Amino acid sequence: MQKLVLPAFLFLSLNTLAQQKPQYSQYMMNNYILNPAISGIEDYTDLKTSYRNQWTDFPGAPVTYYLSGHWAMGKPDRTSSGPRPYISKTIRRTSDPSPVFKGSPRVPGHHGVGFQFISDKIGQSTMNSLGLTYAYHIPLTAAVKLSLGALVGISQYTFSFDNLTVKDNPDPAIYNGKLRAIQPQLNLGAWLYSRNFFLGLSGNNMIFENFNYSVSDSNTPNPYVWLGSTYTQYYVTTGFRQELGEFWSVVPSVLLKRVRQAPLSYDVNIKAMYNNRFWFGASYRRNDAVVGLVGVNINSNLNLSYSYDYTLSGLNDRSKGSHEIVIGLMLHNKQKLLCPQNLW
């Protein structure tokens, strides 16, 4: 009976862990991590790395790392000649050295490419994924563009039996090897944007749902095989930028998240920025957390941001909140921008 109960328990645990995607509090600093259509949206190479420690001091709580990068190809406004990106005539900042006024000719479309590496560990389960992205940005007017993009990659899921203890009649599989699985990944996205608003829609794990875990140790007698599943996750996000005088701007935004067999979730955010250099903000995540955010654009090549989640769920008694740090590099930033023009 022990052998029947234990595999059933692991089957449920592995299914639950595998279908969950990493949580991010600072996705608004890097929407690319949720939507491949953002590939190549800016005039520079955008590299970001992040560390997230969720539910601090809670045993087995999620720890997430990622490294991402994307850049434009064939974008004419990367050069000093030719059409330049549309910028409102009311804005003249040191970070916008050569504004183009309303009525400028529409720039041609351009390509964007990039990569994402994500590592997410929850208890004994680890997910590592690597994806390559492509997007094409289509000008609709002189100020508005539509981008369509895709990510193609693979995810590896691992479940380790290290540090698991079974007192009575332990199953041999508990002490031998690990469970491993490989799953192809396909994400699709669309992003409608201008300098002052954005609207995005994306879906992760669009095709491949099921995969098999297998015991990696061939010496394990009668190795078990478990079925894992990942459900498609949909994201809808929108926001706009409102200028408040010469130096201040605010950006309210919202993110809706939907996954099969789970209730609709949403984040509501507000971000305020001073002189395109210093910013702070707050988020509310439904039935989960209130988040405080702060960041600084140190110079035209480096930015840094930090967030703290105060847990509102039943884990509040055990958790000391969540911490997340994002470091960004803006390479080949020929215009010496302090702040992104299309993602803020």
Automatic annotation (TrEMBL):
Keywords: Signal. Residues 1-18 form the signal peptide. The keyword Signal applies. It comes from the Bacteria. NCBIfam families: T9SS_PorP_fam (TIGR03519). This is Type IX secretion system membrane protein, PorP/SprF family. It comes from Pseudarcicella hirudinis.
